[in-house]
Design brief:
Layout lengths: L15 H29 L5 H15 L6 E5 L14 E6 L18 E2 L12 E7 L8 H11 E12 L17 H11 L1 E8 L3 H15 L9 H29 L11 E8 L9
Parallel strand pairs: 1-2, 1-4, 2-3, 4-5
Antiparallel strand pairs: 5-7, 6-7
Amino acid sequence: MKHNSHALPVNGTRSGFSYFKNTRNCKRVVSKDTAVSLTSWLKTSPLFAFNLVNRDRWVAEQAARLPAGTLVLDVGAGSCPYRGYFAHCQYQTQDFVALAPGQLRDGGYGQIDYICDAASIPVAPTSFDAIVCAEVLEHVPEPVKVVHEFARILKPGGKLILTAPLGSGVHQEPHHYYGGYTEFWYRKFLSEAGFDHIVVEANAGSFLFYAQESIRFLRNTRPFALKMPLVAQLLWAPFWLLLLPILGALVPVSGTLLDPFDREQRFTVGYHVTAIRAGSGTREVE
């Protein structure tokens, strides 16, 4: 028989203090679980985290196109959130250093095979069939050298799967060197490095760009989390609360509905890029 911590005493009554204490503890657990569930949902909601959701979906689609046994290097792998997408491949990882737990996505640091500079990976030329590099180029001091290194270690016909922001706030400091990359950067420097069949796709358009920025604004200007005098924070708090339903709900919802009609996509959070290592006599990896 399982022990029941809420069993009644012998006299058939429960202590009022004991009941109150257990109820209060239960409420604390429920509140904590609810907060964790809400935070988890916000991080994976297409409405409030479309950038991450779209990017993960795109990387998963690219991974699914690779044949079983493909030798893949994940550059700047961090906590290796994409390991599962490449379960059918021979998946290896690179990063330059272990980050602090607070800087990582989804917990602990993943197993890293090559701890080194992304511009100088200690492997022989033409070692890999595919490279995935997601949201990393803004963190390397010399990104042009990095894409040349990708060309060196990819086999002819090998596939590069690449994403980076077009505009982002400072993060993972002090290792954040560039605000973002345009479509023209990819086409120029990937071509010069020895890639062809370059495909550049915007990750949504202007409406979702501003939806993301409205949420970022609310997050970065939370009352009493700012380094401002207390009086200024007290004055700001009611305005922040007034803006909350507009910037936190109305703008993201309307942005999600309207963004499919943005054909130009001149303002975007970033690009999803694929390119093929040029070379004759080798079939493209797909």
